[in-house]
Amino acid sequence: RNMSSAGPEGRKKMRECEGLIDSLVYYIQGAIADHEPNDKATENCVCILHNLSYQLELELPESYAQSIYVQRRNISNNDKTPGCFGTRSRKVKEKQQDTPLPEEKSNPKGVESLWHSTLIRIYLSLIAKSTRNYTQEASLGALQNLTAGTGPMPLAVARTVVQRASGLPSIRAMLHVSHPAVKKTAVSLLRNLSRNPSLQNDIAREVLPDLVSVLPECVPGCEVACETTASICYTLFNLTQGSSHNARLLLSAHGLPKVIAISINDSNMFSKASRAASVLLYSLWLHTDLHSAYKR
Asked: What is the pTM of this model?
């Protein structure tokens, strides 16, 4: 567990160690099957996998990177229509976002297991069944690592979490735990998931009222809670920016007074949350059809 947090070279060596990742996954599967998700060894295994999933897409060996990105490169080569961002037109970007990973292997080995749906479901199971905070945080953190970025792997993992594995109820429950780090990591994961336009309506329907309910009435007084508040605001921004319906959901959940109160805080120490709330308010105001509702 300590060695897995030793930096990029340490992670690389451990990912390449034959049988190591497979053994960790095998142990966790056994613990879940035996209804023992709270033992210390399971916590250690999940924390190792959490660390090994950090910056995974950037640090993958070239052979994996080529197989994952080949479809993406073909799409961009086939359409060079100039757009607002040079040759990467909006249409091309949207196509790339919908590009799936190559078909999953039924028996993944080694590093392939780190993004496989089997392990994603294991994380979600531990989030739901374990009462050990470090195990919950590491499981959420591993999914957060795997959904960071905009490449085909994070997008595919996000779709698995939300649609294929129906993971939102388990993640939503973590918004209401008392442990600050677990709550912060759960919100960070939802922020990553909410960046995927095809998942935003599902997330808003299942989680948006809960996000609003855990928003504080004003900027909180500690750094972790402040960062969590900022992440909630940015998640709500992602969910409402392109959807008047989702913005109305936020309004119905009585979120507007909270967001306003957070945005007007003057303290430089906790300006991150205030800034995020202000960005959210600006975005909400762009839904002109809701102006009269906002004013009421």
From this structure: 0.86
8 A C-beta contact, residue 233 and residue 279: yes
Domain end residue (candidates: 150, 179, 208): 179
Neighbours of 18 (CB within 10 A): 9
Q: Count Cβ atoms below 10 Å from residue 85 Cβ, excluding itself.
A: 10
Distance from C-alpha of 173 to C-alpha of 257, rounded to nearest angstrom: 24
Q: Angle 152-159/133-146 helices, nearest 10 degrees?
A: 130
The pLDDT value given to residue 88: 34
Distance CA 122, CA 118 (A): 6
Q: How many whole angstroms from its chain centre is CA 92?
A: 24
Task: Using the 3D structure, point to which of 118, 151, 179 is the last residue of a domain.
Answer: 179
pLDDT in tens, 109-161: 888 899 999 999 999 999 999 999 999 999 999 999 999 988 888 998 999 99
Which residues is 83 bridged to in the sheet? Answer: 86
* Cα 48–Cα 130–Cα 227 angle in degrees, nearest 5: 70
Domain range for 53: 1-63+109-179
